[in-house]
Amino acid sequence: MRILALALFAVALALPSTAFAEGPGSFARYKGYYGGAIRLEANYVARDTCQAAIDARRGAPPGQAVAPLTIPVTIVIGPNPRGCGQSRLVQRVMTVGGPTSTELIQIFFVNPAGRILKIEKISISTF
After folding, report:
1. What's the alpha-carbon Rg for the chain, to the nearest Å?
2. In 1-127, which ranges are E strands?
3. Phi first, then psi: what are they for 17, rounded to 5°?
4. Which residues are bridge partners to 90 per DSSP?
5. Please, is 8 exposed, middle or buried when counting C-beta atoms within 10 Å of its C-beta (0-12, 13-18, 19+)?
6. Which phi and psi angles does 126 have, rounded to 5°?
């Protein structure tokens, strides 16, 4: 019993130092029960509060490839034309289309020059 108590105490001490992912992840969901359009909420934690998603399009950046059954999306992160905000979280909500056999969306977050800042793969949820 004493060993169990010490083990639980050691686990409790280790938990606060665990590193968690920074910011909310992106999310994708089919808009209908049988596939079709996909609602994508892409989230990126910027280096400062003066960044925004200035462009988003379906497709991969030049020189990048994606796996079969994956929809590529490129989101450009750059200076916010409206100035600085209160949060470093940059969010872009968009609708993309794809076949019902699609399993993943691969998001390429790039800067205005095309340099990749982050690549995120997310599965598409259903209802």
Report:
1. 19
2. 27-32, 35-45, 51-58, 70-79, 89-96, 104-110, 116-125
3. -90, 0
4. 44
5. exposed
6. -115, 175
Structure tokens at 98: 């794809």
Q: Which two tokens stand for residue 11?
A: 């686990």
**Residue 124, Cβ neighbours under 10 Å: how many?**
20
A 10 A CB-CB count for 127 gives 7
> Are the C-beta atoms of 77 and 109 separated by less than 8 Å?
yes
* C-beta of residue 55 within 8 angstroms of C-beta of residue 90: no
The C-alpha atoms of residue 119 and residue 42 are separated, in whole angstroms, by: 11
Contact at 8 Å (CB) between 117 and 109?
Answer: yes
pTM: 0.78
Q: Could you tell me which of 80, 79, 69, 64 has the C-alpha nearest to residue 119? A: 64
Tokens for 97?
Answer: 């289309």
Question: pLDDT, tens digit, for every residue of 23-53?
Answer: 578 999 988 777 789 999 999 999 999 999 9
